[in-house]
Amino acid sequence: MRKRISSVLAGLLAALLLWGLAPVTAEAAGASFSGSGSVRAGDSVTVTFTVSGSNIQGITAVLHYDSSALTLTGTRQLVGSSWSVDMSGGNLLAYDQSLSNPITGSAAVLAVTFQVKSGVAAGTRVSATITDIVATDGNSDQSLNDASWAASVAAPPSGNANLAGLSCGDYALSPAFSAGTTEYSVTVPYDVSRLPLDYRAADGGADVSVSGNQLSVGVNTVVLTVTAANGASRRYTISVTRQPDPNVTLSSDASLSELTPSTGQLSPAFSPEITEYAVYVPYETSKISLSATAKDSKALGVTQPDASLKEGDNLLTVTCTAEDGATRDYTVHVVRMPAFAGTLPQIGQPEPEDPSPEEPQTQTGPFRALWTALCAPVDLPLNRWLPMYAILAAGLVILLVLLFFIGRAVGIARSRRRLPDHPAQMEPPQSPAEPESVPEPVPEPEEAPAASEETPVPPVIVPESVPAEEAPAPEAVTPPEEEVPAEEPEAPVSEEVPAEPEPAPEPEPIPEPEPVSEPEPEPEPAPEPEQEPEQEPQPEPEPEPEPVPEPEYRPDDEPPRENPLDRLRRRFRQRQEDPDEPRAVPEEDDEDGVLPERVPLRERLSAAAQWVRDRIPARDLENPDDAPEEPPEPEPTMDDAAREQKWQCARLHRQRLLLTAPTLLAIAVAVIDGLDLLSQGWYDHVWLRCGIPAGLLALCLLLSTRLWHEAGESLGHGRVTAPAAALVCGLAALADSAQCLFLGQCPNLPFAAPAAALLYLCACGQYRAARARYDSFRLAQLGGTPPYVASVTAAGACKQQGRLEGFYRMWQSPDPAARWQPILTPLYLALATVLALVAALSGHQMNRFLWLWSALLSATVPLSLPLSGTLPLSLLCRRLHKSGCAVAGWRGARAITAARRVVVTDEDLFPVGVLSLRGKEKNEPSAALGTVELNGLKVYDQEIGEALAYAEALCRAAGSQLTPLLLQLMDGQVSFRYDAHDLHYYEDGGIDCTVRGATVAMGSAYFMKKRRIALPRDLKMETGVFMTVDGRLAAIFAVKYLPSRNVEWALRALRRNRVTPVLATRGVNITPNLLKRKFRLNARPIYPGVATRLALADLTAQPGETPNALIYRDGLLPMAETVIGSQRMCQAVRWSTILSWIGGLCGLVLSYYLTTAGDFAALSPLYMLAFLVLLLLPTLLLSGLVKYY
């Protein structure tokens, strides 16, 4: 038995030995190529190639795939790092480089990434196969089976994120459900705390989530978010209003019980019924908070504002919300005082020692030391020409200041000459019939048309003529100075009504109906003064030059006078027709027998100015009377105009944004090059130093599409404007860069940076102009027909009834900058071209002509030129747009500011909407209507109802502000009304009329004393109104005027900007003294005679002829803002234009001097940019003054 077991074991051991000695071969089980079985068009899919076997040290294979549906995008090795895997042209080679890490078992060799082409249709089968797989162990090779991968193209995921249905149970949605509507509302009773939603997604693969479905009393928002299979989402919002509990009554008390600031004190003291307060804090206080407590403990909440303070007025609002949702606002004006600007004295400071006598010898001079200190921080190279730029810039700034003050002084002097402050000179001029009564003397007829031209508004002329007929008789009404000039020109008119001066008992009144009934006939003789210059050769030569300077003082809005050149030609022809006529100069005649008179210098200058204006293409828009009579084109509606300007603003804003980056890069290149911050390689490589600026400048030229368009239009009309000049500068610099690149030499950096900056600012100017028009037209579009317009009268700017016709046409008038550009721009460009040619020829440097030309052009066309007219106007329109006003461009602004006067009425000083009447005794009636208070009413020998009826009839006929107040007093007490007849106004501050046969008069205490009416002795009322019936005191009205904060600000602003108010008031107590007392300032108003005041007051109620400005708000403040802003805008445009052209001329002269001296290092783009920026600063500073006044 044992032997048998031993023999079996021995056999097994021999078999094992023989198996171990047999050679080992690579017996791979096979290969696989596996990946995702479903793909979508456009997706990327990764397929893994895996082999299995033992002792595999190398593999070869071939990859095949459907190239019409798949794109091989990459491969990635998966086997160990000792292996090398290479896929080239579809052939795979992988082997073990170390021969020590063979594959035994299963191992991933390679990951192949395919992308399914986007055009493959859903359901298509895509596949890839690896064939000819051979594995080796180093001794023998073994072929493996082919490995393949296939997948089907699935449809793309759905992007449908809509709901197919949505309902809320028994509660109907508003509007009815629609898949395209995402906002709904529904109201549920108090019992519903959760909205019963029933919804269904349109796509079965979409997911729907609900949020906010916990309802509280009031408005709740429930949101349903639908997420599609591809990730797209859509929100459906339901505004759910849950009604309050019907068994509970909510409190509506939204008042505060306490309001306390963190610093300062409230003024007035806090009271729950007072909602507006003021707090004054010092400049050192920069933050403040308000602590408020609700009066009702059930209030929903109270805001606790905490804000940083700016200097001046800061508005904080505290809002208290009651239990039922009602709110109440408490406003607090926190006024932060300005900082102390003075200088405290220094006590005990030792005086500086006297410098030694040797120190002045070591100093280098004030200018050299100054500029050394300025340039040292930036390490600029100081040369002998750099201070010249600074000296020139400083001189220009000093010139700006001098010209500004000189111009202000001249403007003030002219405005005072036009309308002196004396009330008698505010009266309208004499009738044009005066020359007919005195035909012989020639100097007198010349003065008559000059006076008539200064006051072309008929409503102001006529009322003065009618009172003059009845003014001779009164003794205490009209001063003697006013009677004499009023009678002389009215001689022909007084002959028609000789019986009117006879009644002596009533000489003082000035009838109101007559000044209004006769204004229209008198403007007709206005053309007569135009024929009178034909008689000018008849008088002696001495008085003829005297009336010539008078055209200098006429308002800008008056019709233009006769052209001085035409007048000179006409005089010369008259001399030829009548050679025997006396000569202006007693000398011998010419060969022709005629010696023309010598024309004064001022008239010759006026003729030259007229010659220049005649050659301005836009002249017809400025002087429409000189233009040929053609039917005007219909104006577009404000909707169309605003829409067009909005489109223009969008395009110009996009152009400006596109130009920003290349412009800044070009400036950065100029700065870096000028400061020598780069290595020598920058200066040696021409393609870098010239190519980069040239490329940036070319990009700016290509992006300036609107500049090319505007320049083409202007050149088509024979005009050269700022955009055309900017394009010329850019093309010159680009041509210089191209020449340097062609020659391979770049001795100096091209002037690409100044040209790019000029193109950018031209684009900014275009955008500013379009934005200004859009702000004005947008306001007119939103507001419709304005309630008021700012018109021009002989007394100054006047607020009249509104209209829109003509506003668009007036906007098209150019400003001085645009009018002078077609004249001076070609002149400056031609001068720069000639000087560049002269400099190149004189220095024998024609190869540098383009560089010299671009340098002179850059210095000639300043950066401020495209902004001098558009920037101030844009800032003004933006400010006025916030105030509800719009000015009709330059033409409208210049018209309303020419006279520096504003007509002010009762409604402007004390608006009707804020009158009030208050009684001191319990039995006295009371009413509240605004800033005029009636503190009491005392009746003498009259029933109160009868006295009120008399006063109401007189006030209603006179248009007094007390009329609505008296009507409110009579309501419920007096059921009858009286009518007034024969109304008269008096200079002493009173009016009277006839009511039911009785003479009723009302006026001030001074008026009553003049009529010898006995007043109570202990009476102390400065603004009381007294009424008499048939010469006996009937009633006393205790009237008190309360100043308005807005009116006070407006009067102070007018006074500060030297704009004179002209009072056109009807109230007997509204006088300059009253304004001085109530508003605590001397506004220096003009207080004309009663006839002129009534005429101006009636003029404000008439429709405006020319909409120089649109005003959509009541009161004096909007009108004052418009006039003052327009005045500052006109000054900024004028001075910016003048300084721009002066700066361009100085830059041209200085650049030419540097070129002739050969100092090209000082004429670099960096220094040129610094010089142009200095010239730009005055324009920016002057434009900034438009925003703050």
List keywords for this structure.
7-stranded mixed beta sheet; 9-stranded mixed beta sheet; 1189 residues; 39 strands; alpha+beta
Number of strands: 39
Sequence stretches where pLDDT stays below 50 over 5 or more residues: 16-28, 343-389, 416-561, 579-596, 617-629, 914-930
Taking Cα atoms only, what radius of gyration do you get, to the nearest Å?
A: 46 Å
Strand content: 15-25%
Sheet of most strands: 9 strands, mixed
Which class do the helix and strand fractions yield?
Answer: alpha+beta
Helix fraction, binned, reads 25-40%
N- to C-terminal distance: 131 Å
- Average pLDDT figure: 75
Main sheet strand line-up: 25-33-34-35-36-37-32-30-31
Shape: flat
Task: List the total number of helices.
Answer: 35
List the helices and strands and how they pair.
Elements lengths: L1 H20 L8 E5 L3 E3 L3 E13 L1 E8 L4 E8 L5 E6 L2 E6 L6 E14 L8 E12 L4 E3 L3 E8 L8 E5 L15 E6 L9 E4 L5 E5 L6 E10 L5 E10 L13 E6 L14 E6 L5 E8 L6 E2 L3 E3 L3 E10 L5 E10 L22 H4 L3 H10 L10 H33 L15 H4 L5 H12 L3 H13 L9 H8 L3 H6 L13 E2 L1 H5 L10 H4 L32 H14 L23 H14 L4 H4 L15 H37 L5 H5 L1 H4 L1 H13 L1 H12 L5 H22 L8 H32 L4 E6 L2 E6 L5 H5 L4 H27 L6 H12 L9 H13 L2 E3 L1 H9 L3 E4 L1 H4 L5 E3 L9 E3 L2 E8 L4 H15 L4 H8 L10 E6 L3 E6 L2 E6 L1 H6 L14 E5 L2 E10 L3 H12 L3 E4 L8 H8 L10 H11 L8 E3 L4 H42 L7 H23 L2
Parallel strand pairs: 2-11, 13-17, 19-24, 29-38, 30-32
Antiparallel strand pairs: 1-3, 3-8, 4-7, 4-9, 5-8, 6-7, 9-10, 9-11, 12-14, 15-16, 16-17, 18-20, 20-22, 21-23, 23-24, 25-33, 26-27, 26-39, 28-39, 30-31, 32-37, 33-34, 34-35, 35-36, 36-37
Helix pairs in contact: 4-34, 4-35, 7-8, 7-33, 15-18, 15-21, 15-35, 18-20, 18-21, 19-20, 20-21, 20-24, 21-25, 23-24, 23-34, 24-34, 25-34, 25-35, 26-34, 28-29, 31-34, 34-35
